[in-house]
Write a structure and sequence with these properties.
- It is a single chain.
- The protein has 18 helices and eight strands.
- With 469 residues, it is an alpha/beta fold.
- A six-stranded parallel beta sheet has the order 3-2-6-7-1-8, sandwiched between helices.
- Helix 6 packs parallel to helix 7 and helix 15 packs antiparallel against helix 16.
- The protein is globular and about 85 Å long.
- It starts with 5 loop residues before the first strand and ends with a helix.
- The relative contact order is 0.09.
Length: 469
């Protein structure tokens, strides 16, 4: 057992399955008695997302045969009535409701619009931004507000980023940001609301302060978080200090040396995109080192070794030939068995090929996970799979403009803007949600008449009048 309550599960393993196994066999319980019908119900497990929470509960139910009480599984920062029905209430004033993302977007867009039409904005904007650009700028400004609140940095620190000798437009931008970032909290206070990121930080800090009171000596396991938010890192540190507190990190590479971890965090090193950067930063915040972490999974597979070598820092890439020779041909071939590179000429064929591969795997009774940073590609794949009757569970959700009602609204707007141009008109009439007071079959028949009799080979004038003529 780790002497500091810190463990990791390798990226080559099923994280939640290994976590459940380590709880059931007592490796993460620090001597907690595993007797009686309620021992598992006294264990608290904290995960980053609701999705992971539901999946872990399913794994426990399967392994226990559904005949035992499950652990108390929670999510980081969650304080809903469903998650905390049995705990004593923490003595703190009631929190205000969080302002919605849409409300913040509209308020910030209005502030941006007021600034854009002022005399101070003449040197920044060649022309005042249109409404769409104001909303885009509001989203960027909202992301800045979240970043400042998550990191606990005052907006006054922005002034230090822009030396006085820089151009006047930079000074004006900073002045505008200071005004907006000061106005937003005042607007929230007037409305009796709070910013979501700030409220989450407050919940995490309150949970860290009340851990000992709430849990006592019972096992508490925080798993799957990288501690990228300072308040989350503080909570993880507080959990690791409990008598039976455990922190399980996802995919920490314990083969890295202390020098390599220092190189990851070296000032000026461009390593923020490295997958181990966040975990190395969390260890630094906890005041711990790589030697304080225990691996819960078996030895890494050859594929995991290859991936770790491929993700080496730039100064270590000259060692690739030596690592390749050390792995050996047989292990290298075994590691890449089943790995295929698809070079598709366009996104349409790429999505179709991936969907066919997924369909083949599902037909053989396998589960399929598709990971892509491109949400448009993900939606293309989902659409292709839908043709085969395979439903997909996309955690990213569907944007409003691509939902059924969103597509209908876009078709209506396009037809109105083009004054019933042929392509836009037919696209609208072919939409399954359009009936115009008729049966869908009758409307489809009339739409065919419009297409073949009025639009094919003819160029009617714009609008309804053109079609009638």
């Amino acid at each position: 057992m780790s002497r500091r309550g810190l463990h990791t599960i390798g990226s080559h393993a099923d994280f939640l399955a290994e976590l459940a196994a380590a709880v059931l066999d007592g490796r993460l319980l620090n001597g907690w008695e595993r007797t009686g019908p309620f021992w598992l119900a006294d264990v608290t497990i904290i995960l980053p997302t609701k999705r992971a929470q539901l999946r872990l509960a399913e794994i426990f139910a399967q392994r226990l045969g559904g005949a035992a009480l499950l652990p108390d599984i929670r999510t980081l920062g969650g304080e809903s009535a469903e998650e905390e029905p049995f705990l004593p209430p923490a003595e703190h004033p009631p929190e205000p409701h969080a302002a919605s993302a849409l409300e913040r977007r509209l308020v910030l867009a209005r502030l941006i619009g007021a600034f854009a039409h002022s005399s101070d904005a003449a040197e920044i904007f060649s022309a005042p931004p249109n409404p769409a650009e104001m909303l885009w700028l509001a989203d960027s400004l909202g992301a800045l507000i979240d970043d400042l609140e998550i990191e606990g940095i005052s907006h006054r620190a922005l002034r230090e980023l822009v030396p006085e000798e820089l151009a006047a437009n930079w000074q004006q931008i900073i002045t505008f940001l200071e005004v907006v970032l000061s106005a937003w909290p005042k607007i929230l206070k007037e409305r009796g609301k709070g910013d979501a990121a700030l409220l989450r930080n407050a919940r995490l800090n309150r949970q860290a302060a009340t851990l000992k009171l709430v849990y006592g000596d019972r096992p508490v396991i925080a798993a799957g978080s990288t501690g990228s938010i300072p308040a989350t890192a503080k909570l993880l540190g507080a959990i690791s200090k409990l008598k039976r507190g455990m922190v399980v990190l996802p995919g920490l590479d314990i083969s890295l040396t202390a020098e390599q971890h220092d190189a990851l965090l070296a000032e000026g090193a461009n390593t923020h995109g490295h997958p181990q950067y966040g975990l190395a930063r969390l260890l630094r915040r906890l005041g711990l080192g790589i030697a304080d972490v225990e691996e819960l999974t078996p030895e890494p597979s050859p594929r995991a070794t290859i991936v770790r070598a491929a993700l080496a820092l730039a100064d270590e890439t000259p060692h690739w030939p030596a690592i390749r020779a050390k792995i050996g041909d047989a292990a290298f071939d075994a590691a890449l068995a089943g790995v295929t590179i698809l070079a598709a000429p366009n996104a349409d064929l790429e999505a179709r090929a991936i969907a066919l591969a997924a369909r083949h795997a599902v037909g053989e009774g396998q589960s399929v996970g598709i990971v892509t940073p491109d949400q448009n590609l993900g939606r293309r794949i989902a659409a292709e799979l839908n043709r085969f009757g395979i439903a997909t569970d996309d955690p990213a959700g569907t944007p409003l403009y691509q939902s059924a009602i969103g597509r209908l609204a876009r078709l209506v707007l396009a037809a109105g803007e083009s004054r019933l141009a042929a392509v836009d008109l037919m696209a609208l009439l072919r939409n399954g949600a359009v009936t115009l007071g008729l049966e869908r079959g009758e409307l489809a028949r009339r739409a065919e008449l419009v297409e073949f009799k009025l639009l094919r080979g003819q160029f009617p004038a714009a609008g309804i009048a053109g079609l009638r003529d």
